[in-house]
Write a structure and sequence with these properties.
Elements (H helix, E strand, L loop, with lengths): L5 H13 L8 E3 L18 E3 L7 E7 L5 H15 L1 H4 L2 E8 L4 H13 L4 E5 L7 H10 L2 E5 L9 E3 L3 H15 L4 E7 L5 H15 L5 E7 L4 H15 L4
Parallel strand pairs: 3-4, 3-5, 5-6, 6-7, 8-9
Antiparallel strand pairs: 1-2
Helix pairs in contact: 1-2, 4-5, 6-7
């Protein structure tokens, strides 16, 4: 349910920022955020951005990476449905979506193109958290509101919106420790390689398992959060490395 709402929530975030935004880079100010009940600061040192006011209608882009799983398709459709609502559509001059797959340079190029085309805000589901430094700098210098969500960016110069992905991994690890009391063989079906969500969840699981004092034999396969890919990867792993506990 949470993820089904993300596309609309992030589009709303872009509107919130543009309501006080965006011809120059943001000023760092004290909180609270514009919608504190919805967007809580990640940590005590989380920065709050204030942009120069700009009147609409706005041009907003969604730069998605990987597309070939059900949630990504649902996310894009949710964002489009949000943008099509009459009270939202009247604030928009254009809402454009591109998906560039697992090609990181192509996603960076798409963001650069949106900046060059004069878009007011760009929402990105980043294929890699560390590869976007130059384009983040360009967006900031151009006064473009850059919002990363789900798979976020390793930077303090863009807005990151996410749930605690590492915490989810820790939760799963704790479940394994509690329900496989003597340790054992585990199959970890991972997501899209290189993304922050996959890395954070993986790290959360393994920190708990490694700290449990039990012996774990973990086989990793890549499922890309795609039903078909994950099912095949799981079946192959069971055939070659199973059974698993």
């Amino acid at each position: 349910m949470i993820k089904s709402l993300v596309g609309g929530v992030i589009a709303a975030t872009a509107f919130v920022m543009l309501g006080s935004s965006a011809i120059a880079g943001p000023e760092v100010v004290k909180g609270p955020a514009a919608e504190p009940d919805c967007f809580a600061p990640w940590a005590a040192d989380t920065q709050f951005f204030k942009f120069p006011k700009k009147d609409g209608p706005y041009r907003i882009a969604l730069a998605n990476g990987y597309i070939a799983n059900t949630w990504r398709i649902q996310m894009i459709q949710t964002a489009k449905a949000y943008a099509a609502q009459p009270d939202v559509a009247k604030k928009l001059k254009e809402f454009k979506v591109v998906s560039t797959g697992e090609d990181v340079p192509a996603q960076i190029s798409a963001i650069n193109n949106f900046i060059d085309s004069g878009f007011d805000a760009i929402v990105v589901n980043a294929q890699n958290p560390t590869a976007f430094g130059p384009v983040i700098k360009r967006a900031k210098e151009a006064g473009v509101v850059l919002v990363a969500f789900d798979n976020i960016l390793d930077t303090k110069d863009a807005i990151n919106v996410n749930v605690d992905q590492k915490g989810l991994g820790e939760l799963w690890g704790k479940w394994l420790v509690a329900h496989v009391p003597n340790g054992g063989k585990v199959l970890e079906v991972r997501g899209v390689a290189g993304t922050s969500v996959d890395t954070d969840r993986h790290n959360g699981i393994h920190e708990v398992l490694d700290g449990s004092g039990k012996k774990w034999n973990v086989t990793e396969v890549v499922g890309k959060w795609d039903d078909g890919v994950a099912q095949k990867a799981t079946a192959d792993a069971i055939a070659t490395s199973g059974p698993f506990d």
